[in-house]
């Protein structure tokens, strides 16, 4: 079995630093795997980290370029999360457009877990950058904020139009539940009396 980074053949078994790195990578992957079914708790933790980052940027009164870059990256992740894996515009309508078409489930271009993981990594990187003054470039932050809001509105408007045009909804609130036939259950309850 290859190591996490595929360097077993390079002699990592004799190098203690590489052994330690592989051990830490396996442990990290173990905890990532255990967190997979707990989406709500993962997102709560990430939102707490985002709040801490916002407080840090607010109290330091700087790092607006880092925050702007983080916002653009998160917007890019959000678009990937809301987009279908197969774009109906370029490859034809893979999603059903008529009632008689076969149902095909919505498959995201960026799955939820990868979205969360990339979001969290970006927050950690941005938070780390706030400890280095070289990244605190003096800018007039209201212009950056206004530009980001305009970018967000235009991008979401385009995405929503795309969703309406190709009739897909990227959200589902669980599995659809069907109740059994009412008539057969009524007959069973009357026959048992």
UniProtKB/TrEMBL annotation:
GO biological process, one term: protein retention in ER lumen
Keyword entries, A-Z: Membrane, Transmembrane, Transmembrane helix
Pfam family, one: Rer1
Location(s), subcellular: Membrane
Listed transmembrane segments: 40-59, 65-82, 139-156
Cited function: Involved in the retrieval of endoplasmic reticulum membrane proteins from the early Golgi compartment.
Protein name (record): Protein RER1
């Amino acid at each position: 079995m290859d190591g996490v980074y595929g360097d077993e053949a390079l002699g990592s078994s004799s190098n203690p630093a590489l052994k330690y790195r592989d051990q830490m990578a396996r442990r990290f992957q173990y905890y990532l795997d255990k967190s997979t079914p707990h989406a709500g708790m993962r997102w709560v933790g990430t939102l707490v980290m985002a709040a801490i980052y916002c407080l840090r940027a607010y109290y330091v009164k700087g790092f607006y370029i880092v925050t702007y870059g983080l916002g653009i990256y998160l917007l890019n992740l959000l678009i990937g999360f809301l987009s279908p894996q197969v774009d109906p515009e370029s490859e034809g309508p893979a999603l059903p457009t008529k009632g008689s078409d076969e149902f095909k489930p919505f498959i995201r271009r960026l799955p939820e877990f990868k979205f969360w993981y990339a979001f969290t990594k970006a927050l950690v990187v941005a938070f780390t950058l706030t400890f280095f003054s070289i990244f605190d470039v003096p800018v007039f932050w209201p212009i950056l904020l206004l530009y980001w809001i305009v970018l967000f509105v235009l991008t979401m408007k385009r995405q929503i139009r795309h969703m309406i045009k190709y009739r897909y909804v990227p959200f589902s609130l669980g599995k659809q539940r069907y109740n059994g036939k009412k008539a057969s259950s009524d007959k069973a309850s009357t026959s048992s009396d």
